[in-house]
Amino acid sequence: MEWRHQHKINTLLDDFTPPEVLAKYFSAGYTGVDKLNSSLLITRFGAMDLKGMLLSAKKRDYLMTVVEVMTVIFDMAGFSMRHITFKPVAVETTLQLLQISESKYPELLRCVFVINAQDFAILYSMMKPFMHEKTKNKVQIYSHDSSIWKAALLAEIDRDQLPVCYGGTMTDPDGNLNCVTKVGMGGEVPRSYYLDAKPDPTNKKTFTVSRGSKEQLEIQIKQAGAILKWDFYTEEGDLAFAVYRKKDDELIPIVSHDRIDCDVSPEEGEIRCDYTGVYVVEFDNSYSYFRSKKIWFSITVYNERIENTEPFQP
Questions:
Q1: What are the CRAL-TRIO domain coordinates in residue numbering (predicted)?
Q2: Are residues 91 and 31 in the same domain?
Q3: In this predicted structure, what is the pLDDT of residue 120?
Q4: Model pLDDT for residues 139-159, shown as the tens digit of each residue
Q5: Does residue 158 sit in the same domain as residue 78?
Q6: What's the number of domains the chain is made of?
Q7: What is the structure's pLDDT at 1?
Q8: Percentage with pLDDT > 90 across the chain
Q9: Which spans in the chain are helix H?
């Protein structure tokens, strides 16, 4: 419930407006419901330029467009190694989406159909070790034989909820059988959409957070009311970040733990420290199964009243 409140999931449809690049090139959409009245999402994964989207929008925006789905059709037509060779970024994003579904919505993912999937084996073999057994049991995988997968879809979904191209009767107002007004056709994302973040390494220190691990920096606050300021970015890949106040053996959250797209743009922020003592800045890469993250950072403490600045020295 805390995660849902933090990310405003309950009001997502009313409050969230996806970036233009996702609205145009994210090849997924809801077409209706299945026979148990669960929402139906169709994703033309093979038609999606996942690399282009991850270079053009915050990963959080991408994930927010696909949380809380129930019955899903993954159309892998057009899928190739390019979908998983953008270093491990594309795979990590897919795994993060899977982890959100399993941990935050454990009973809401009812059924997953993977169709046109003869080249899907490599990606699935990378994901399968990290999937809960319940999730594995919900996945049905079909090759290019449309007569077989259409029959499977129609066993769970009424024809009027499916586009004609998937065995249903639904079309666009202009007769398009792919229902592109509901489910986009993807395509290559133009480079004009790519985010152009050029971080400044001046006066920044650097270290590497190993895969599956975290680093914590302890900062001594000598005067109540001091300002703790941070500025950091990673070479590639997101990183979770949090700030705590240390009280005896307890870490009291001051800035909530959250994954930050600091590879897309630098993360800057500050807090007022109302108590003296030790504050802990945490860089967390424990969720990353594939790679370490190199981080450039600066942490500064300064006093509101006398305005003297004290850079943090690890």
A1: 18-174
A2: yes
A3: 75
A4: 999 999 999 999 999 999 999
A5: yes
A6: 2
A7: 46
A8: 41
A9: 2-6, 12-15, 20-25, 50-54, 59-64, 89-104, 121-127, 133-136, 146-156
131-150 exposure pattern, b = at least 16 Cβ within 10 A, e = fewer:
beeebeeebebbeeeeeebb
Same domain? For 42 and 142 the reply is yes
Return the ∠ at Cα 64 (arms to 230 and 31), rounded to 5°.
170
Residues in the chain: 314
Query: Would residue 63 count as lying in a domain?
Result: yes
Confidence band of 309 (pLDDT split at 50, 70, 90) = very low
What tokens does 135 get?
A: 């999730």
**In the numeric block, which tokens belong to residue 17?**
């407006």
Q: How far apart are CA 299 and CA 309, in angstroms?
A: 11
Of 199, 254, 258, which is closest to residue 231 (Cα–Cα)? 199
Tens-place pLDDT, residues 169-212:
999 999 999 999 999 999 989 988 887 666 778 889 999 999 99
At residue 75, the 3 state secondary structure works out as: strand
Residue that terminates a domain, selected from 142, 163, 193? 193
Mean pLDDT of 211-240: 91
In the predicted model, is pLDDT for residue 2 greater than 60?
no
CA angle 231, 235, 240 (to 5 degrees): 60
